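FAQ: What does the model actually see?

It sees only this:
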Amino acid sequence: MVPTRRFWLLVALGIPLAALGAAVGSPLIAVAYDLLLVLVAWGTVRLAPSTDSLRLKRHFDLVLSVRASNKIVLAIENDGNESIRALLRDEAPPTFTASRREFKVRIDPGALVELTYHVTPPERGSDSFRGTYLRVECPLGLVTKQVKLPTEEPVRVYPNVLALREFDLLKQRGRLKDMGIRRARHRGLGMEFESLRDYALGDDYRKLDWKASARRGKLVVRQFEQERNQSVVICIDIGRHMLAEVNGVRKLDHVLDALLMLTNAASLAGDFVGLLVYADTVRRYIPPRKGRNQVGIIIDAIHDLVAEPIESDPIGAFAYLASRWNRRSLLVNFTDYEDADRARDLVVAFGPMARRHLALLVRVMDPRMDEVLAKVPESVKEMYMQAAATMLLDDRRTAKSIISSARIHTVDSEPQNLASSLVSYYFMVKERSLL
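And it is asked to produce this:
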């Protein structure tokens, strides 16, 4: 039983009555008044509509996406014979940001009411909804009856899975550029023959089929399709180098969002996709396979990854990979390197893989670096910050030159562009038949 504003107003009206009772020597008048008010309120609770006839189901995706707006739908059905007016509160995990938490509802007999709100989880991992609470209006409006509906259920928060749907939709519409993903203008730079067609202005002369042109009496070009059944192996360093934060989010979380986009693109292209997670030891290994099921397997394997404050062992990790997979592949290694020493260590570990595979190092850049360098210093502190940023930038350039000299490709991107830069690189590899 929860008192309403009306109840407390009636309690306040008893104050003059108590003063009058004290003046005439009958203080029990106020006690009797308050007791009567409580009894009436309790009686209205007994007369309130029963909530036993309510059926509530919560609908949402099997997995929620971190730092994204996830839709939650509450479907409430009244199987009883009375209308129910109530204030409803759905208890999402307390760390989630919810667009709404409370709703005023009226549920008529036999009616179905749907309520929608959105939640934004700040971190990956497992949590649960705590249930749904109702404050049902009672007759006279003195109190509300609070009940809890047993709607507790677990929820798992993954990297941004919602972005995959956007990718699929834009790909179907041929509008991947809306996500910042670049594709070559010319179709048919693969190696598998698809068909013949008439020559069009701008076609590569190397694609001309002279025999077919002679038979038809006009220029004809061969059209090729991108090769399928190629391999992409994604390697993730979860050691101390991935503990740093960019825009308040761990680098590892930015990496996992980009990884999902690359995995989805490779799967849709018919390629094999595998995963290697390492720190001081290999933590997880998923052999490359093709198909949409592989995307789900990888998503499930990475949803609870956390960076650890330990030194990684990339030499051992890539020796492990080399012993289990030797087919030429695109090897994508998500890690970080800030100076020449770290770059040389990566060359020793990752360099040998570049002799057989197409090796790519990916790191997340911090946009605040450019902001510091672009700003005119107005204090001694800002001057020192700019000097430190300049030194760090020089170290990064030296490290990148060491990496490049070992025939290792690199993608350096800020968080908001990381996924699109990575997928654009993958499409470039496919279109140029680099594998």
